[in-house]
Write a sequence for this structure.
C-alpha cells in the first residue's frame, strides 16, 4: 500500500469511507510520500533525481550499455556511452550490493570510459558535484553513485 500522507484516513491511499484490503501500517505516520517529499535526502527525492537524469543526459537516453566489472560479486557497475552525433559526458553507474565497504578501480578498464575522473551526479554516499578518481571509488555498504566522466 502506498502511504501518501500521515494525516488522511487510510494514509491517503483510499477514500475515508473505503476499507483498504491491507491494513495501514503504523509506519504510515512517519514514512509516507508527503513527508519524504520535504526531506532532500529521502529515497523519494533520490529517485526523482535519477528520473531527471534519465530524461536529460544523452548517454542515459540514447547511449549503449557496457558492463564494467562482471567478475566482481559485490559491485555492479556499468557505463553508458554517448552515441556518435550526441553531445554530453559518458556516465558510470556503480552500486555496492554488499553490506561492506568496497573500492572500485576502473582505471584499467578498456571499455571506452573516456576519462580518469568523474563528477557525482547522484549518490547516497557522495555530495553532488564532487570530483572523484575512477581509480579509487570508495563505496560504503550499499553505496550508489551515478558519475559524469570528465
Amino acid at each position: 500500500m502506498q502511504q501518501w500522507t500521515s494525516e488522511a484516513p487510510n494514509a491517503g491511499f483510499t477514500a475515508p469511507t473505503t476499507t483498504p484490503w491491507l491494513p495501514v501500517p503504523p509506519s504510515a505516520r512517519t514514512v509516507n510520500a508527503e513527508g519524504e517529499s520535504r526531506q532532500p535526502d529521502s529515497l523519494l527525492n533520490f529517485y526523482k533525481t535519477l528520473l531527471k537524469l534519465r530524461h536529460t543526459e544523452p548517454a542515459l537516453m540514447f547511449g549503449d550499455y557496457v558492463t564494467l566489472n562482471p567478475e566482481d560479486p559485490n559491485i555492479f557497475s556499468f557505463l553508458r556511452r554517448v552515441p556518435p552525433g550526441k553531445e554530453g559526458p559518458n556516465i558510470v553507474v556503480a552500486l555496492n550490493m554488499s553490506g561492506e565497504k568496497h573500492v572500485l578501480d576502473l582505471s584499467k578498464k578498456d571499455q571506452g570510459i573516456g576519462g580518469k575522473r568523474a563528477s557525482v551526479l547522484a549518490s547516497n554516499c557522495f555530495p553532488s558535484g564532487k570530483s572523484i578518481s575512477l581509480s579509487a571509488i570508495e563505496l560504503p555498504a550499499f553505496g550508489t553513485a551515478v558519475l559524469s566522466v570528465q
Summary: The chain has two domains: 1-38, 43-149. The domain at 43-149 is CATH 2.60.40.1180 (Immunoglobulin-like). The mean pLDDT is 91. The beta strands are 64-67, 75-81, 91-96, 102-104, 117-123, 131-133, 137-139, 144-149.
